[in-house]
Each structure stands twice: as structure tokens, then as C-alpha cells.
Amino acid sequence: xxSPPADMTTFTAHASDGLSVATIRALVADVVGHAGCGHPGxxxxxxxxxxxxxxxxxxxxxKNPKWFNRDRFILSNGCALQYIVLHLxxxxxxxxxxxxxxxxxxxxxxxxxxxxTDGVEVTTGPLGQGIANGVGLAIAQAHLAATYNKDRxxxxxxxxxxxxxxxCLMEGISAEAASLAGHLQLGNLIVxxxxxxxxxxxxxxxxxxxDVEKRYQAYGWQTLRVDDxxxxxxxxxxxxxxxxxxxxxxxxxHLRTTIGFGSKLQGTSTIHGAPLEADDIRAxxxxxxxxxxxxxxxxxxxxxxxxxxxxxxxxxxxxxxxLLASYSKVYPKEHAELTRRISGNLPIGWEKALPIxxxxxxxxxxxxxxxxxxxxxxxxLPELMGGSADLTEANLTRTExxxxxxxxxxxxxxxKGTYIRFGVREHAMGAIAxxxxxxxxxIPFVGTLLNFVGYAAGAVRLSALSRHQxxxxxxxxxxxxxEDGPTHQPIETxxxxxxxxxxxxxxxxxxxxxxAAYYSALTRRQTPSILxxxxxxxxxxxxxxxxxxxxxxxVVREVEGEDLTIVSxxxxxxxxxxAANQLGGxxxxxxxxxxxxxxxxxxxxATYKLSVLRSGxxxxxxxxxxxxxxxxxxxxxxxxxxxxxxxxxxxxxxxxGFTALDVARVGKDVVDFYNARGxxxxxxxxxxxxxxxxxxx
Length: 697
Description:
Layout: H1 17-35, H2 40-45, H3 47-57, E1 72-75, H4 81-89, H5 95-99, H6 129-148, E2 160-165, H7 166-170, H8 172-184, E3 189-195, E4 198-199, E5 202-203, H9 212-219, E6 222-226, H10 233-245, E7 251-256, H11 278-287, H12 300-330, H13 332-343, H14 366-380, E8 384-388, H15 392-395, E9 419-421, H16 426-439, E10 443-449, H17 457-466, E11 471-475, H18 493-498, E12 504-506, H19 511-523, E13 529-533, H20 546-549, E14 554-557, E15 564-568, H21 572-585, E16 590-594, H22 598-602, H23 606-612, E17 619-626, E18 636-640, H24 649-655, H25 660-677
Parallel strand pairs: 1-2, 2-3, 3-7, 6-7, 8-9, 8-10, 10-11, 11-13, 12-13, 15-16, 15-17, 17-18
Antiparallel strand pairs: 4-5, 14-16
Helix pairs in contact: 1-3, 1-11, 3-10, 6-8, 6-16, 8-16, 12-13, 14-19, 16-17, 21-25
């Protein structure tokens, strides 16, 4: 019921088509010229395909940018083009906003940011991320449609459209994502490849000469070609129409364009990333029949055609709302669940399913605690959907009740399934998860070894920047993974991700802390989380609890008049406790603090933080990772300064000094040093310059 109107089943030219395409090109020149910087070339070249897509096929309501069944659009090669189309359609992007392109605090930054601008689905700019996000959006649509659509109720039926270019297709992440999309037979995904033969370095002949169509055919995609993307509006229309008819293959529309079309610099790398000169802009407008003395003045005819598109979108949403209301009467349970998921609310009382542990409970790896948690949570939270990068048995991410997300014709699962076999594609997995979350109604989780989250750092960064709630289950969290050796043992990884704004990096020490990590990750709706989990068994700590761990840090062993505090995370907390007992036997009073999540601890009131990491005695940080960053919470730090080694984990730990005996010896040295130096020891939290926690935007 959400197909284009009957008069658009075949191409019909509108009198204002040519004027509208020219208007988009001129606006691009005006916007980038006014800013004095930007990327006008691809935007000018893609004006015709943007016009045809948005006036003939795209279903959305600018008055309600979050209508759930809207078509999704991603400008993977991010530039000003999206802002111009949003303005013409009537989204909250005014001419004044266009004039503020790339200015401080504007809603039109240099690359589209989802949290800033209505109508922008995902943040793009780093090349290749957008097309992988598009795969995530397409998976989400296919899954939710399979789960909730019924006979006569085609509730979730949107398409995902992606504009991409040579740079995106060179990036490895796009190959990873496209390969998986072809395997999954995502017929709801249509990608337009802007083949303008230009990158920053010049003609693509210097570095990119493969046959892209054959590559995508090998992935299992439908490929279509439009040789004159500069002016063949009917050819562009027919390519979209044919792509929409294909239900079992994603589509790549290979569009040959001229970068900067209409400019005297068209077809050159100069036009890729620099504004047009004033005389060039005037000549461009004259060539296309536009007033040369006017800027930022789209003609009324262009506004009119886009206003009709917006009105069509409003009608479609009204019809959809009526359909949803009828659905609620026939399928009340499914309706309640779907609308709850769309709202982002979790079921009432879900947290009661979180396991609670006592110190007498048997030791387990924290990845096993995670497996238990997933087993109960997926039955309470149908919105949990995810998988592993070919490490299911290592990450323990697939529960007994899960069905694989696969095309039903393969016999491997169905689109109702919630477990995604990502294959060995960590980077694409992270970006696909961003798309899953951006779609709505899904909380994605993804699994790999902690060290290999580094492969996906670009996608993780965009999760944090875009406020995507993605849960990383990152097992094998330190040198304790042992025999796989230094190639797999993370050292600097935690420091990297702890330094990233709006990212919670959890390293739980036992079962209760693992439950707390999941609670936090599931309730922090605008923050991604990395759960760094152990391969070796860890004891359940006496005095730990979900509530205490949810403060990010707490005292796990308290003494008065201490000589030393050891602060630690994960598998080293139990080592710290053993060392504290040994030190106590030598008359050195030692407190122990578990600090499983720095960013959550930082959010606590100052009085609480100072009660945990208080003045009066030196604080020693202990972690089998890089010590970078621990100076914020400790006076001294004992950790890794080299890569790890291959060997059984107890021997590896002993080699680097992570035994209770060695840590006690280090602790005694710290106490002796500060006693010899004299003077009162002040908490490391007390600083002259106070950290200012400002949320992005």
C-alpha cells in the first residue's frame, strides 16, 4: 500500500524536472561558496538522481521525520546534497540553515549528523560507514516485517536507499557489508554508486580500476547501469523501478556522472573539495537558465513539486496510522509489543531477570556470566538482536532459543531470527549494528575478542558520536587469554575506548558486576557499551552487588586508617584482594576498590567518588592492560608496558607479575615510597582544573 501513486508506475516527465535539477546544483554551489569550503562536486553530479529518488519513489513525511515506516536514506559520501533536499521537502532545514553550512552550532555541519538534523538517519563522513549502516537498516526492516506483518497488514514495508561513491567502495568496510547483504538476500536495499572517476588524488585510474559491477554480482547483488547520470532522468527512474521489483537481491545502480557538472571545473579533482569561484557560479546559473544575481532562491516551481511529495508522505503516514489502529484490534499482543519497541521503552520488570550471585557461588568466566544473562534477557527483550564475527563459541553469544537471521530459502533460518552470523567482518558488524539501532525497535549486540574490537574502531566511534545503543560483547579481555599470544592479547585497547566520549567500557570482576554491566548497557539508550569479559574463571566477590557496581566503582574491601588502597578492574580485583590479605598480615592496612566502568563512576557525585578514592593513603592501580589513563584515579599504576606472550594464562600472569605475592610486593614499595616522602596524600580526584562533562551537541 506504500507504492508510488498510479501515475508514477512508469516515468512521466514533469515540466519542472529540469529546473529542479538545476536548482539543486545551483544551491550546492551557493551553499559551499557561502561557507568557503565543502565538497560541491559529487553533490552537483548527483542532483538528477536525488531529484528522481525523492520526487518519484521516496516515502517520508517531513512533518514527522520519525514516522516508523518511512523510507530510509543514507548519504554515505556525506556532503551538502542531503541538506538541500531536506530543505526542499519541507524538513526543519531553512534557507538560513543552509547559509550556516559548516558554521559553529549549526544544524548543517560539514558531514550529516543524525543527532542534529531532522531527516538524517545516520552520521556519515568516514567513507564506507554509510553503506554498512544501510545494510543494518535493511536487516532491521526485514526482521521486523517478518515478525509483525500479517495478512492484510503490511505494516513494515520501507526501502533503504544509499548514495555512495568511489571512495566508499574502496574502503574495506563496504566490501564486508556488501558481501553479507548479498548472502542475506536483502531485496529492500538499493545503493546508488556515483561513478564520477574522481577522488582527491585525481582520476580513479591511478588506484581503482576494478569492475565494480562484476564484484557486486559476485556478492549476489542485482546490478543496473545508467550511463548518463547527468541528464537521463528516465534511465534513472527505470533503474529505481527495476531495483524495487527485485525482492531477493540488494541492488547496485551504477550511475556514471560528471563531478561538478555545469562548472567550468567539471570532471576534475579540483571540484571535489573546494568551492566554485564567484564567476563560475554565475556562469553555472546562466547555463541552467537561473537568475545569475540571486543566491539561495529556489524557484516556486521547485518548491511546488517537492511540496506535493511531502503531502504524499503525510497521506501515506495517515493511512499507515489507520492500518496500525486496525492491527491493534486483530493482533493486540503484537501491537503492544511493536509500539513498545518503537517507543524505546523496555518491558516493566525486565530487570528482575538479572541473575544475582553470592560469594559462595562457584567461580565462572565473565563470558559465562554473560552467556547466562543473554539466555534470560533474550526471552524478556525481543528487541535484542545480534551475533558474532565468527566467534560464537568463543563469545558465547548465541542462546538455545535463538534462531539465525537468514533468508528462509537457504534453510538456515528465517528473517524472524534474531541471531546474525556476521562472518569474519568486525568492522562491518559494528557499522551494521549502528544501522540496526538507528532503525528503531532493536537493541543490537555484537561479539568478538576485545583485541579485535580495534578492527571496528571507526564504527564504534560513530556509535558514540551518533548515540547509538550498541552492546559489544568483547571476550578474552587481557593477557589472560594465554596461548593465542600477543597477536590476540589486548594491551592498549581499553585505554583507547575509555578515552572515547560517550562510550561505557565495562570490565566486570564477577557475576554481579556482569549483571550490572548489562543493566547499564540496556538502560543507557544513547550510549554504546563495551563489555570486556574474561576467558578464565573468576570468584564471586564478597560484598559485590548489582546496585553497588552500577555506580561504576565501589569499595569491595574496607578498612579504617589504611596505608594503601588498591583500585582494579576485572580479573585483577580478586588478585588485589589476595594481595590485600597478604599485606594485612604484614601490618599494612589495605583497602580494595573495584572500578568496573570509569565513565559511570565519573557521573557519580563528588562526595561519593571521594569516599571511594579518598585522601589519606596512596592509591595503586592494578590492571593487566596498559596503565594509560589510571593517573586520573591513582597515584601509582602497575600494569602492562609491553606486548604479552604466548603460554598458559597462569604462567603468563606470573611472568608479568600479576600474582598476589608480586602485587603485595609492589604495594609495599608504594607504601614505603610515600612514607619516606612524607606529607599528607591527597586523592588523585582532587585537581585544580575540574573536568567539564559536556554532552556532544
